[in-house]
Design a protein that fits this description.
This protein is of the alpha/beta class. It contains 12 helices and 14 strands. About 35% of the residues lie in helices and about 20% in strands. The longest helix has 23 residues. The N and C termini lie far apart (about 50 Å).
Length: about 400
């Protein structure tokens, strides 16, 4: 009898989920952006599951694409609501590699009567996919949709690490309506607070008010200006390895590589940097959602920006299917342990390096001092952090983590 009740509950739950998906999502009209019949068997458009007549089930799905045709919250970039299908047009021509591509395209979120309606729809869909252990890939739409992406974790009451890639730091105070310039303030001030750490990648200092940088630094959040990435994006790998949710504003890419944004500037990331960041995000075992925003087909030149966005989604998936579970521990031959002795203050710092992937980790004390201190926490870091410790310099990444954990 118990098993029958359990089975009935499961059937009711699945039916409820199906109703919710169909309420919020518009099925795709494939002919509007791709000719599936003329695709090769190894191209994405032949490999993934499309929502064309309703969603039956998502059994076996790893990644789910959601388009959000909403740009009412975008300042100075109207037209980005048209991005999802424009990106799909190029994404589904790309070729999969030597892995099974278990991806579903769920269609587009129906634009709500108000922006809040759209936020609620996206948050609920993200939360449901997270419950199902499916990673949402969100194609916006305006960057304020990041707040709704974060809302999915709030619904599950999960404490998370968030990373945003953007030339600007979107924190404006004393504005009644949420928009693409102030959504971060709402995200950080939300109560109850589920944000443990925030990382801002590729901001441009001349666009950042000094008091904003000071405030974020006092909160021990991580700030990486564009110049930090000029020698490559490798230092962002440990940042994304510790991140649960990534939001990427395409205006962080320089105009010459991504002209399809009314806020694009001469300086910014290169297209290959954006793809590498997306791949690092996909590789991260902790990463459970990826949002790509502010792509504007109306002002795009030769569809260059939507092509870049499609390639970023491809690289995220490629990283996802290259994930390997690695966590340092004693007596594991897959890792090399390094202990650095600080002679001046009689302190030891421990680092780990993976023999297989060359990734690095560091140990950071948790809790108070002396007897009150609990065991160390092992966190992602870079080779550069190890080199700093070898010079008896405390890595900035270690210091910020220590302040948060102590």
């Amino acid at each position: 009898m118990y098993n029958n009740f359990e089975a009935n509950d499961r059937i009711i739950f699945i039916a409820h989920r199906k109703i919710m998906f169909e309420e919020f999502l518009t099925p795709l009209n494939l002919s509007s952006f791709i000719d599936v019949k003329n695709l090769h068997e190894t191209q994405w458009g032949k490999q993934i599951r499309f929502n064309t007549e309703g969603i039956e089930d998502l059994i076996g799905i790893d990644l789910a694409i959601i388009g959000v045709m909403e740009d009412r919250g975008s300042l100075r970039n109207s037209g980005c609501a048209d991005a999802p299908d424009a990106v799909r047009h190029h994404l589904y021509k790309l070729y999969k590699q030597q892995y099974d591509l278990n991806v579903a395209d769920l269609g587009n979120i129906i634009r709500g009567v108000t922006m809040r309606d759209t936020y609620v729809a996206l948050s609920k869909l993200v939360a449901e996919l997270l419950r199902m252990k499916i990673v949402p890939i969100i194609i916006g739409g305006s960057h304020d949709l990041t707040y709704a992406q974060y809302g999915g974790y709030q619904e599950l009451e999960e404490i998370i690490n968030v990373a945003v890639v953007d030339s600007y730091i979107d924190i404006r105070e004393n504005e009644p309506e949420i928009n693409s310039d102030n959504y971060l303030m709402r995200l950080m001030m939300h109560q109850p607070n589920y944000l443990f750490n925030y990382s801002h990648i590729a901001y441009q200092t001349h666009f950042a008010p000094p008091h904003t940088l000071e405030t974020l630094d006092k909160l021990h959040f991580d700030l990486y200006r564009l110049g930090k990435l000029f020698d490559g994006t490798v230092e962002m790998e440990p940042v994304l390895r510790a991140t649960n949710m990534l939001s990427f504003d395409i205006s962080a890419v320089r105009y010459s590589d991504a002209p399809g944004n009314r806020n694009a500037t001469p300086n910014g990331l290169r297209g290959e940097d954006a793809c590498q960041i997306a791949r690092y995000a996909g590789l991260s075992e902790q990463m459970t959602s990826f949002g790509l925003y502010e792509i504007n087909p109306m002002v795009d030149d030769r569809e260059q920006t939507v092509q870049l966005a499609a390639q970023m989604v491809w690289y995220f998936a490629d990283g996802f299917y290259s994930r390997r579970k690695e966590q340092p521990r004693d007596n594991d031959e897959s890792f090399t342990k390094y202990i650095i002795h600080f002679r001046q203050n009689h302190y030891e710092m421990t680092f780990w390096k993976s023999v297989k992937s060359d990734m690095w980790w560091m140990e950071v004390p948790v809790g108070g001092r002396g007897r009150m201190r609990r065991k160390n926490k092992v966190l992602p870091c870079s080779y550069e952090d190890y080199q700093s410790a070898c010079k008896e310099e405390l890595p900035e990444r270690w210091l910020k983590a220590y302040h948060k954990l102590s």
